[in-house]
Design brief:
The structure holds 2 protein chains of 2 kinds. By secondary structure, chain A is mostly helical. In chain A, about 80% of the residues lie in helices and about 0% in strands. Chain B is an all-alpha fold. Chain B is globular, with a radius of gyration of 21 Å. Classes of the chains: A mainly alpha, B mainly alpha.
Chain lengths: ~100, ~170
């Protein structure tokens, strides 16, 4: 049974994703870190499915569908922002700053 | 240590190492390629955790489709050059310390993590189900039975995302 180790690995991957989202300034890299966090959660679902039932696999299926939709819309937003600002650096996108 | 455990820790080490490389590289293309490494390693972990179908989906959907979209946008915006490093300084160190202490707390809890007795299945129940109904059938049964309404709503979500992406990315409608 690999439940404990799998949960530990997914915690590490999730924390790395959070660190990337908080520290990086490139919008596309931040998006990739969000995908990393979603993957860590998927790993948790699959690990727990071994003891709780196959519903965990079904949830991973839904998470993947949502991640695909999120990537498509998010990258379209980045494209639209890039067209206005000529940059994907979050330091340049400060319209709401006083 | 069974062979499966050894493989699990080896692949986990690769996954964590490539994830670290992914968030530290300055060049977005390098980040994307390391992320593909992480996604592949996680797919192997899925297979080791008796989720073969999900592992295949992971390679096809994540490492295939989603990462191609990412690389395509990087190419479209011409972001192939590395920017300035942005993970240094006191803010970076403070964030790292905070997250690391949170992670240590999680390790303490996760070491003896187990699902509650009331909903726990007997050891090997999932493998028995997969042997009985097939690896794909075990997922497809609940997906098209118990969870058919969320499944149908997913189609609406994907349609909305499709339309939204076209509207957002189009210069002029």
């Amino acid at each position: 049974m690999l439940l404990g180790p799998a949960l530990v690995v997914s915690a590490v991957l999730f924390t790395l994703g959070v660190a990337g989202v908080l520290l990086r300034r490139n919008a596309i890299v931040i998006f990739m870190c969000v995908e990393l966090m979603l993957n860590a959660v998927n790993l948790t679902f699959v690990a727990l499915a071994q003891r709780i039932g196959v519903a965990g696999h079904v949830f991973v299926f839904f998470v993947m569908a949502v991640a695909a939709a999120e990537a498509a819309v998010g990258l379209a937003i980045i494209l639209a922002v890039f067209r206005h600002r000529e940059s994907v650096d979050l330091r340049d996108i400060d319209l709401l700053k006083g | 240590m069974t062979p499966v455990t050894v493989a699990f820790w080896g692949v986990s080490a690769v996954a964590v190492a490539t994830a670290v490389m992914c968030i530290t590289r300055r060049n977005p293309v390098a980040s994307a390629l390391y992320l593909i490494g992480t996604l592949f390693s996680v797919a192997v972990l899925f297979v080791l955790l008796d989720a073969q179908f999900i592992g295949v989906l992971q390679v096809l959907v994540y490492a295939g489709a989603i990462m191609v979209v990412f690389l395509f946008v990087i190419m479209l915006l011409n972001l192939g050059r590395g920017g300035p490093g942005d993970m240094k300084g006191p803010v970076g160190i403070a964030t790292a310390v905070l997250l690391a202490s949170g992670l240590l707390l999680q390790f303490r809890v996760l070491r003896q993590a187990a699902p509650p007795e009331a909903i726990r299945l007997p050891e090997g129940a999932l493998v028995a189900l997969q042997r009985e109904r097939g690896v794909v059938g075990a997922v497809a049964g609940p997906l098209f039975g118990e969870y058919v309404i969320p499944f149908e709503i997913t189609s609406m979500l994907l349609l909305a995302a499709l339309v939204g992406a076209v509207v957002l990315a189009k210069r002029r409608l």
